[in-house]
Design goal:
Radius of gyration of chain B: 13 Å
Shape of chain A: globular
Largest interface: A-B, 23 and 23 residues
Strand content of chain A: over 45%
Number of helices of chain A: 0
Distance between the termini of chain B: 41 Å
Number of strands of chain B: 11
Oligomer: heterodimer
Number of helices of chain B: 0
Largest sheet of chain B: 6 strands, mixed
Helix content of chain B: under 10%
Largest sheet of chain A: 7 strands, mixed
Structural class of chain A: mainly beta
Strand content of chain B: over 45%
Helix content of chain A: under 10%
């Protein structure tokens, strides 16, 4: 079974530029998550999708961050414009369905550096 | 608001030792608690998931316990090996998934 795929692996941009990350979840997984992991901290949930609908985006900084999952499969996360504090690893995870005891499977993440 | 704390932040042990990693959380209204392993530059790999009605889970040399009433979980690693070197994160699943900052484990040959 192929795992969660993310691209790019690394991205370096200057502040105020825009950036986008892509995630392809495990085939058949209905639920998709985006996390932000700042160095030395645990991941923080940004947004959760169930198919193509948003379940939870309460911690997403909506003035600069946006995410979509138009066809209920792949997802993109965008930052526009980027700030220095956005430097982090952005992790995508998926689970088979929505449910409190569904294990999440993580991709290797995109490491974003803001100059 | 759920807060998750992991102690110690870093741990270095010689190969073969048994060790315990600690996780505490402030809100006992949880569905489950999960332990993950994270290798440098990699995503998270799930090790053990303990449902709120369970007291412990075991997988190979790993044993995780959960005391919901006191807001604590421990991850016990038996006979540690250099390949166990990684960061171990606990995550508490309640209204949402909250992670601790992790314990960075180094097992020296």
């Amino acid at each position: 079974e192929a795992g969660v795929a993310q691209s790019p692996r690394y991205k370096i941009i200057e502040k105020r530029q825009s950036v986008a990350f892509w995630c392809n979840p495990i085939s058949g997984h209905a639920t998709l998550y985006w996390y932000q992991q700042i160095l030395g901290q645990g991941p923080k949930l940004l947004i959760q999708f169930q198919n193509n609908g948003v379940v939870d985006d309460s911690q997403l900084p909506k003035d600069r961050f946006s995410a979509e999952r138009l066809k209920g499969v792949d997802s993109t996360l965008k930052i526009q414009p980027a700030k220095l504090e956005d430097s982090a690893v952005y992790l995508c995870a998926s689970s088979l369905e929505l449910g409190e005891n569904q294990p999440q499977h993580f991709g290797d993440g995109t490491r974003l550096s803001i100059l | 608001k759920q807060e998750v704390t992991q102690i110690p932040a870093a741990l270095s042990v010689p190969e073969g030792e048994n060790l315990v990693l600690n996780c505490s959380f402030t809100d006992s209204a949880i569905y489950n608690l999960q332990w993950f392993r994270q290798d440098p530059g990699k995503g998270l790999t799930s090790l053990l998931l303990i449902q709120s009605s369970q007291r412990e889970q075991t997988s190979g040399r790993l044993n995780a316990s959960l005391d919901k009433s006191s807001g604590r979980s421990t991850l016990y690693i038996a006979a540690s090996q250099p390949g166990d070197s990684a960061t171990y994160l606990c995550a508490v699943n309640g209204n949402d998934m909250r992670f601790g900052a992790g314990t960075r484990l180094t097992v020296k040959p």
